[in-house]
């Protein structure tokens, strides 16, 4: 029986192996305690990363407040920018405003 390399286990978890290579990894996971331990470690790491990334995407009250402040600021300065002849934007072509 071949010894599965750690990268192959990582590729297996990500679904990046072809059928023959995936089958070989599955066989190794069945019979090798070390391979199964590595698989479990990688699986937990990837799961933690996925949950952390999902938490970053979850809007928090602070993020919503920042978005409201940005929108309010944009509304407040928009009339000043559009009516000001001395604005640096006034000299730019309209498609670059």
UniProtKB/TrEMBL annotation:
Protein name: Anti-sigma factor
Source species: Histidinibacterium aquaticum
